């Protein structure tokens, strides 16, 4: 092997980088473990909310402390946290939601709630069609309008030809042109909703959040790993944006109050325990509270100015709308102090209704501390703003005459009058633009603005800041709040259990594989184990480096790639053993085993087919399935490198030192040698067996059917844990009264845990519906819950008794989209693989044989799931995870088949003889590899199945069945069909 030095250097550097990246995860975990110990010492009993609060308190207190010093760089806990490996919801808990911005509501708003019959009929028809169509809502609406509108156009004054849209839609404009304008407006509304949600989530530094738009579908995906207060999260992401315009007090007007308050607070805080005893009353008005965070009160101070830094005005030139600043971590303490009745009593009459609101973003101080500004809003008895945000027609970032960024804002006629009065009354003062109780800008007013069009600018305003403000202003005209159409919630208790189960199953699987390789291949097996260990390091290092999300299916993908890494070594070692058995020297045999003519060609073909499957999965999958596909693809690349290059380096070194390296042990010596099975002669028996299995599967599928999961049919599914063993039948009967019809109830893992699936009110819209269903579930189960309250029953926070451990909600519309995407994924993978095999082997008989075997495997796995659904004590629903399992089975089956086909092609090109003899010989030669790989992969899968989490058992069972069937089909289905088709091709030619 050439370039050994370069490969060694690359492997060492890559290994060091991987260890470096993984070290951040270990360091962050160490600090978090310390936080858990601290919280446990502070809380008596099992109050999960208090424990979460104290954990957050501890982490806040050490957030900026250096926990590692490398000499050239220092890292605080926050720095380490940013670089650690991300864990998915199924390992960490939290919420994953897809929100839908209603395009229908956008259209109705743009039309000023038009009463035009053709317009409303088209909307209603589009509603119905959307339930079974993947087309965009606008396209469906446009098609329906064209059908029924006759001579009426969308630009008609009764629809979109309104005064508000006169600058964008001309009178009598064609429908096609109006549609383009509408699409821009819809995209703008969706983009604004996205930015508002991102602002809510991002501005407080939530750990590892993820928010992204899903194409042009009007859907937004939000993932908050670690979120515990699910109820507050839900309100946060579904509440409509509240844009308001307020008058503002200057810093000069409130500074005397601050000085008086400072003295009063000093008296209040003479007792150092005041803040500690009031910690439970601190309610942060940002998303930190959603993750159980409380303020850092470990350093108790003596006055208000220990936390709040007033912006003192000593002259007219120093007047400002910014009245003070505070450390971000101290905002909750400041809020609490300023709300105290003793402090509010110090406000003079003209400041009686003052509201103190924070800036929407923080700045970094000279000492690196994160500071945030405070504003004094002129409130009133009714707490109503001077102007509501719904008067905004449009807003955009522009440039002034000096090419500096500014914001251009246009109001409707009502807003124009209100704005003229507000600005006229505040010349020389300030007005604030407030969204969700955060101040985005508070500019000074130089003159009354009467034209309805306003420019907001500032000497230091950046383009980004101008774009943010424009987005906020446009949020004032959002027609409807985004609603959750798909959600998955995993409680932290279930997440921790999944982590523990994953580590156990992962450790057992690795141990079994390492042990088997040593028992079978001896010293060579040790070298393969070293390469396998390096492969695992590389996989986790890459995941950590790119902040990829690790999920339970992702761990399964890693373990599957471990099997593939073993497979590559097995193929190489078997080729070396063949060369040695033909009396070739050790060095020559090793060269041949690692060559393209030896094992490398088969390894590359097998890995490419699996890689193609992974690519299809990644394109069409969502959530955990993407995680599985990502780890599978990364694993394929690293497995190929370690199996071919790292193992080669170790083998070559051993050969150079000694000429007695063997590739078997006293136990395995002679296994799979001199085998002479006539597979082709037995193909008719195999056809009968396979035909029988397929027939049974089809009968079961069409009679019993397949149990679809909620992500394919819609509905809500709750995993509920109880303090005692439960009867699924009894609970289903009990819940019939709560839901109208009996839900599906099945034991989920242990006998004290049930999975309850219902379609109750799934067609109803509105966030309150989710609460109603959850409340009905609690009421129905109350007799089984003992002393558990509704608050403790809800998902989120750690559970020590009964309660919802996780739940999934999928509305029927998106369920149909998910099902179609899954179907496209399966068909797409089959088509891609068919074309690849055709290109690689240049014979259609090879492609047909491989794809026929895949269909055979898929049908049998489906049949097993149909027959066994009501028998097995674990979840066997057909859902996205099952589709991932099916595609993995496709990849594995093709992997096996390609290895055999590759050897058949080799024998056909190099030898003479009857085709059936060559095929039998090829299968016999690869039988050792086939059984060895299948056995090691099965050991791995069984370890995960037996010791992994409950949520992954159905997924693993599908893989186990698929591996067994796939191993059989590669020998007894794919090859015989290829043989029979080849004979037909030869006759036709």
Automatic annotation (TrEMBL):
<dbReference type="GO" id="GO:0006605">
    <property type="term" value="P:protein targeting"/>
</dbReference>
<dbReference type="InterPro" id="IPR022646">
    <property type="entry name" value="SecD/SecF_CS"/>
</dbReference>
<feature type="transmembrane region" description="Helical">
    <location>
        <begin position="526"/>
        <end position="546"/>
    </location>
</feature>
<feature type="transmembrane region" description="Helical">
    <location>
        <begin position="846"/>
        <end position="869"/>
    </location>
</feature>
<feature type="domain" description="Protein translocase subunit SecDF P1">
    <location>
        <begin position="192"/>
        <end position="249"/>
    </location>
</feature>
<dbReference type="InterPro" id="IPR048634">
    <property type="entry name" value="SecD_SecF_C"/>
</dbReference>
<dbReference type="GO" id="GO:0065002">
    <property type="term" value="P:intracellular protein transmembrane transport"/>
</dbReference>
<comment type="subunit">
    <text>Forms a complex with SecD. Part of the essential Sec protein translocation apparatus which comprises SecA, SecYEG and auxiliary proteins SecDF. Other proteins may also be involved.</text>
</comment>
<keyword id="KW-0813">Transport</keyword>
<dbReference type="GO" id="GO:0015450">
    <property type="term" value="F:protein-transporting ATPase activity"/>
</dbReference>
<dbReference type="Pfam" id="PF02355">
    <property type="entry name" value="SecD_SecF_C"/>
</dbReference>
<feature type="transmembrane region" description="Helical">
    <location>
        <begin position="821"/>
        <end position="839"/>
    </location>
</feature>
<dbReference type="GO" id="GO:0043952">
    <property type="term" value="P:protein transport by the Sec complex"/>
</dbReference>
<feature type="transmembrane region" description="Helical">
    <location>
        <begin position="498"/>
        <end position="519"/>
    </location>
</feature>
<keyword id="KW-0812">Transmembrane</keyword>
<keyword id="KW-0653">Protein transport</keyword>
<feature type="transmembrane region" description="Helical">
    <location>
        <begin position="955"/>
        <end position="979"/>
    </location>
</feature>
<protein>
    <recommendedName>
        <fullName>Multifunctional fusion protein</fullName>
    </recommendedName>
</protein>
<feature type="transmembrane region" description="Helical">
    <location>
        <begin position="881"/>
        <end position="901"/>
    </location>
</feature>
<keyword id="KW-0811">Translocation</keyword>
<dbReference type="InterPro" id="IPR055344">
    <property type="entry name" value="SecD_SecF_C_bact"/>
</dbReference>
<dbReference type="Pfam" id="PF07549">
    <property type="entry name" value="Sec_GG"/>
</dbReference>
<dbReference type="Pfam" id="PF22599">
    <property type="entry name" value="SecDF_P1_head"/>
</dbReference>
<feature type="domain" description="Protein export membrane protein SecD/SecF C-terminal">
    <location>
        <begin position="804"/>
        <end position="983"/>
    </location>
</feature>
<feature type="transmembrane region" description="Helical">
    <location>
        <begin position="552"/>
        <end position="573"/>
    </location>
</feature>
<keyword id="KW-0472">Membrane</keyword>
<feature type="transmembrane region" description="Helical">
    <location>
        <begin position="931"/>
        <end position="949"/>
    </location>
</feature>
<dbReference type="InterPro" id="IPR005665">
    <property type="entry name" value="SecF_bac"/>
</dbReference>
<keyword id="KW-1003">Cell membrane</keyword>
<feature type="domain" description="SecDF P1 head subdomain">
    <location>
        <begin position="383"/>
        <end position="480"/>
    </location>
</feature>
<feature type="domain" description="Protein export membrane protein SecD/SecF C-terminal">
    <location>
        <begin position="481"/>
        <end position="650"/>
    </location>
</feature>
<feature type="transmembrane region" description="Helical">
    <location>
        <begin position="685"/>
        <end position="706"/>
    </location>
</feature>
<comment type="subunit">
    <text>Forms a complex with SecF. Part of the essential Sec protein translocation apparatus which comprises SecA, SecYEG and auxiliary proteins SecDF. Other proteins may also be involved.</text>
</comment>
<keyword id="KW-1133">Transmembrane helix</keyword>
<comment type="function">
    <text>Part of the Sec protein translocase complex. Interacts with the SecYEG preprotein conducting channel. SecDF uses the proton motive force (PMF) to complete protein translocation after the ATP-dependent function of SecA.</text>
</comment>
<dbReference type="InterPro" id="IPR054384">
    <property type="entry name" value="SecDF_P1_head"/>
</dbReference>
<comment type="similarity">
    <text>Belongs to the SecD/SecF family. SecD subfamily.</text>
</comment>
<dbReference type="InterPro" id="IPR022645">
    <property type="entry name" value="SecD/SecF_bac"/>
</dbReference>
<dbReference type="GO" id="GO:0005886">
    <property type="term" value="C:plasma membrane"/>
</dbReference>
<dbReference type="InterPro" id="IPR005791">
    <property type="entry name" value="SecD"/>
</dbReference>
<comment type="similarity">
    <text>Belongs to the SecD/SecF family. SecF subfamily.</text>
</comment>
<dbReference type="InterPro" id="IPR022813">
    <property type="entry name" value="SecD/SecF_arch_bac"/>
</dbReference>
